[in-house]
Amino acid sequence: MNEVVGRDDLLLLTLDTLRHDVAVELAAAGRIPHLARHLPGGAWEKRHAPGSFTYASHQAMFAGFLPTPATPGPHPRLFAARFAGSETTAGRTYVFDTPDLVSGLAAAGYRTVCVGGVGFFNRQGALGNVLPGLFQESHWEPEFGVASPTSFEMQVARAERVVAELPHERKLFLFVNAAALHQPNWFHLPGGARASGDTRETHAAALEYIDRHVGRLFAAMSARRRCFAIVCSDHGTTYGDDGYTGHRLGHEAVWTVPYAHFFLEPTA
């Protein structure tokens, strides 16, 4: 990462609330071709989330604690704040001297931009300002939020505008929190109805919806130079699993998340 930072643009795309099992099933069935073509070996990596809901998980990720490989560690991290005694900071780790990765990348000359999705990024109150407030530039509007059936394509359009307006020589760290998978998601399933509610099937349909538009995001981020992309879930969620519904709880479907990182080669 010490060679990547300062040379490449960076993208962190969190597919908010995406379950690992659903992501794996859809990749194996060929239902998310635009994402799958970038996954190493065409498959998601199984990892453990650093938190059980959006706020906690993103606070951890912005501190350098991305989802942890679901195998015995320690596992060296891509990014880490300088911290004496850290067992997951290795020679290949990019170490920053600020409290969080966002300001660390800003100090390294990156333009840091947030395109928010769920309510923790809506800047409509003190709590909704904490996470987007880490960035030099942040964007949120109701059309990006959980109740919008077109949320991700609207977020991608804003990201395309951000890239187009940035001077070519300026490096970019773009963070996108995709809200489409979060409840409510019933409207992403053809024939879905509010009365039927959200289910594992509507969750899968929401991931297919994201896949139909993610290629535009990847194309924008590789239009200027090579981009190092991290695509992952911040936590999963439950749909009646063992009697549980939702997240912010300690269930396997919440703690286990899909993860991938890869390079997007420049198209210009």
From TrEMBL:
<dbReference type="Pfam" id="PF00884">
    <property type="entry name" value="Sulfatase"/>
</dbReference>
<feature type="domain" description="Sulfatase N-terminal">
    <location>
        <begin position="11"/>
        <end position="252"/>
    </location>
</feature>
<dbReference type="InterPro" id="IPR017850">
    <property type="entry name" value="Alkaline_phosphatase_core_sf"/>
</dbReference>
<keyword id="KW-0378">Hydrolase</keyword>
<dbReference type="InterPro" id="IPR047838">
    <property type="entry name" value="STM4013-like"/>
</dbReference>
<dbReference type="GO" id="GO:0016787">
    <property type="term" value="F:hydrolase activity"/>
</dbReference>
<protein>
    <submittedName>
        <fullName>STM4013/SEN3800 family hydrolase</fullName>
    </submittedName>
</protein>
<dbReference type="InterPro" id="IPR000917">
    <property type="entry name" value="Sulfatase_N"/>
</dbReference>
